[in-house]
TrEMBL record, chain A:
Protein name: histidine kinase
Entry's EC annotation: 2.7.13.3
Reactions that this protein is recorded to catalyse: ATP + protein L-histidine = ADP + protein N-phospho-L-histidine
InterPro entries: HATPase_C_sf, HATPase_dom, His_kinase_dom, HisK_dim/P_dom, HisK_dim/P_sf, Sig_transdc_His_kin-like_C
UniProtKB/TrEMBL annotation, chain B:
Species of origin: Desulfoprunum benzoelyticum
UniProt key word Phosphoprotein: yes
InterPro entries (alphabetical): CheY-like_superfamily, Sig_transdc_resp-reg_receiver, WalR-like
GO aspect biological process, one term: regulation of DNA-templated transcription
Keywords in alphabetical order: DNA-binding, Phosphoprotein, Two-component regulatory system
Protein name: DNA-binding response OmpR family regulator
UniProt cross-references to Pfam families, sorted A to Z: Response_reg (PF00072)
Modified residues (4-aspartylphosphate): 51
A GO molecular function held by the record: phosphorelay response regulator activity
Keyword NAD belongs to the record: no
Database matches in SUPFAM superfamilies: CheY-like
Start and end residues of each Response regulatory domain: 2-115
GO cellular component: cytosol; protein-DNA complex
Gene3D superfamilies listed in its UniProt record: 3.40.50.2300
Length: 577, 118
């Protein structure tokens, strides 16, 4: 037997009986399946639904939080860069307003001014004054740019129109990335000049590289054409075009989802830096941002899986337990129904037998008397006295009538509901009384009889005659079943709290399953050739029931038979009889 | 020894009467209760063998009627309906009973025993 067979519940092991008088009330396999399915649905659907909702809400919340955080970082970075540029623009504006044109055209004073600006703000590389024709009249700085003509450059025109200019980052003559800030100043006579400075991008870049972006996040500036202005960590090199679409102009910091060149989802935060050609770009990988969510998600799914497993296990165990108990209750009901049906059947057969016996009895009595009269005629008159053959024949008729008479009496006894006559009896004594009838036969056939009565069996109220008849019938059958040298064992032991069990075991020929199923039926006998009427065990069955007991039999063909009779130590109440 | 047999089965009662007469008994028989009462009115009997169940009357009822006419008469009951326990009527009312088909020797023994106790 496999482990599955061992743990398989009873209702799955047996075949479902759906028709006939002894059909089961329900299809237990189906009930079990439905119970499992419905309970699982009722419990798991809300659980899965709530988990799914929670999953989405949490995911959206984390995504939203990530976007907001990136937006805040973008806005802060925008303000920082804007402040950086406007500070330097304001410094230049202050200088042109504070200093006279002559002072600014004095290289010594301009050099002092440059030093002061470097000290105060940092990032200033050089300083130059350009006249209204676009020629740099004065220059202080590391390069020889004195007299350089900028009149053909766009920025020069822009300063004339707009009053100031902040350039893209470019290499220029210097071959070093830098940017230029220029401020126009108009003199009272209407002429104008431009104060121009170059800023190195070191401090500028620091502002972006120090941003806390996490993972593969990147922050850099591009110009309006999408050319990268500051170094990037994971994007293209400086002065190359970015691979993302340039966002449309907006005064606010914008955020959107996009995909990088590898097709990975990214968050793009962009912001136009006011009064400059720059656009701040912050690129963050969505997967990096959702890293914490992925861990939480894994725990959530794991928790869900464990919960579902436990729920299914509990539902399985509980449904199986309930349905199995229902099944067992139904089985008990069917068993009782079987027993009732069997008792009814026996009672019906008993009534039938009594009717038959009664009908036969009267003609039998007449035959008996007629045959008896013939015998009397032979016996009491001299004429026929010598004819022994006729007397023998009549004796044979009378013997047969007597045999029929015994059968009819037994049939009537089988059907009769006898009053139970109670008296205090010792079970050992009753058994020994019965055995005295059979001592001779036991000796003759060398059958050993062993009686073992437990010492703690008390005397109890019972019907001695019925008990004797019960034991006599069973022991008689045992004797018939055994060959010469057979062995009969009768044991009596208590069956707490208030019963005793008498077990009668023989090592006779035993019975098959089929024979066992019929032994209590009237007229069923395996000893018909040797005079068995087939009523002994039927009567025994009825008598045991009348005494409030139970009888069980087990038998193996060729090995022997055991009858167990359970008897109450207290007689049953009248109402229960 | 005068015996009155009462049973509704004529064949049975007539044959039984003849058999008892072989055993030195003076036997009359009746197949109806009325006949039995008439016979008892005319003769005195030592013992009556009564069938327990006859058309319209039971053996016990007939016994009660006969007792008025023949005080001191003994009774044995016959029945075709069951064994002893079924028709136990009590030792004060009847001397005994027998189940059909009866054994003539047992019946004779019962009759003798009943009459000895008289």
């Amino acid at each position: 037997m496999t482990i599955i067979d061992r743990i398989k519940p009873d209702f799955l092991r047996s075949r479902n009986i759906t028709t006939g008088p002894f059909r089961q009330m329900f299809n237990y396999s189906r009930i079990w399946q439905w119970a499992m399915l419905l309970t699982s649905l009722v419990t798991l659907v809300p659980l899965v639904l709530i988990t799914a909702i929670d999953y989405n809400v949490t995911q959206q919340s984390i995504e939203s939080e990530n976007l907001l955080r990136t937006l805040r970082v973008g806005s802060n970075a925008k303000r920082t860069i804007s402040s950086f540029l406007s500070e330097r623009l304001a410094a230049l504006t202050f200088v042109v307003r504070d200093k006279s044109h002559e002072e600014l055209n004095d290289p010594a004073k301009l050099a002092v001014l440059l030093d002061n600006l470097r000290e105060s703000y940092g990032g200033f590389v050089d300083l130059g004054v350009i006249n209204s024709d676009g020629v740099q009249t004065t220059y202080v700085g590391p390069y020889s740019l004195q007299g350089k003509d900028y009149s053909d450059q766009d920025w020069c025109t822009e300063v004339q129109d707009k009053g100031f200019h902040i350039s893209d980052v470019f290499l220029g003559f210097r071959k070093v990335p830098h940017l230029v800030i220029a401020v126009k100043h108009t003199l009272p006579d209407g002429s104008c000049y431009i104060l121009r400075t170059a800023l190195d991008t070191v401090r500028f870049n620091e502002l972006l590289t120090t941003l806390e972006l996490g993972g593969r996040g990147d922050a850099f500036l591009v110009n309006r054409e999408g050319v990268i202005q500051t170094p990037t960590r994971y994007q293209k090199d400086i002065f190359e075009n970015i691979s993302y679409t340039i966002p449309e102009f907006s005064e606010n910091t914008e955020i959107r989802e996009d995909k990088n060149e590898q097709g990975e989802p990214v968050i793009v935060c962009s912001s136009y830096i006011p009064d400059s050609p720059y656009i701040l770009m912050i690129i963050k990988h969505k997967n990096d941002m959702m890293q914490s969510w992925h861990q939480t998600r894994l725990k959530l799914i794991l928790f869900l899986a464990v919960s579902i497993s436990v729920i299914i296990l509990v539902i399985f165990a509980f449904s199986t337990y309930l349905v199995n108990n229902m099944y067992l209750a139904d089985e008990r009901r069917l068993m009782i129904l079987h027993e009732m049906e069997y008792s009814n059947k026996l009672a019906s057969i008993g009534r039938l037998a009594a009717g038959v016996a009664h009908e036969i009895n009267n003609p039998l009595a007449i035959i008996n008397e007629k045959a008896g009269l013939i015998k009397d005629l032979f016996t009491y008159t001299d004429t026929y006295a010598a004819d022994t053959r006729i007397v023998g024949l009549i004796d044979s008729v009378l013997s047969s009538v007597e045999r029929c008479g015994i059968i009819t009496k037994r049939l009537l006894g089988f059907a009769r509901h006898m009053e139970v006559t109670l008296e205090s009896i010792s079970i050992g004594t009753v058994i020994n009384e019965v055995l005295t009838f059979l001592n001779k036969e036991a000796e003759y056939r060398n059958i050993s009889v062993k009686v073992d009565v437990a010492p703690n069996i008390p005397e109890f109220q019972c019907d001695r005659g019925k008990l004797q008849q019960i034991f006599l019938n069973i022991v008689n059958n045992a004797f018939s079943a055994m060959d010469v040298g057979g062995k009969l064992t009768i044991t009596v032991h208590p069956d707490p709290p208030d019963h005793i069990v008498v077990t009668i075991t023989d090592n006779g020929c035993g019975m098959t399953e089929e024979e066992l199923g019929k032994i209590y039926e009237p007229f069923y006998s395996t000893k018909t050739k040797t005079g068995g009427t087939g009523l002994g065990l039927s009567i025994t069955y009825g008598l045991v029931q009348e005494l409030g007991g139970k009888i069980k039999v087990t038998s193996t063909k060729g090995e022997g038979t055991t009858f167990s009779i359970q008897l109450p130590l207290h007689p049953p109440q009248k109402a229960e009889k | 020894m005068r015996i009155l047999l009462v049973d509704d089965e004529t064949e049975f009662v007539a044959t039984l009467a003849e058999r008892l007469s072989f055993r030195n008994m003076e036997v009359d028989y009746a197949t109806k209760a009325a006949e039995a009462i008439e016979l008892a009115a005319r003769k005195t009997y030592d013992l009556a063998v009564l069938d327990m169940k006859m058309p319209g009357i039971s053996g016990i009822e007939l016994k009660a009627m006969l007792e008025k006419q023949c005080p001191g008469m003994k009774y044995i009951f016959l029945t075709g309906h069951g064994s002893e326990e079924d028709y136990r009527t009590g030792s004060s009312e009847a001397s005994g009973y027998l189940v059909k088909p009866i054994n003539i020797d047992i019946l004779v023994a019962r009759i003798k025993k009943a009459l000895e106790a008289k």
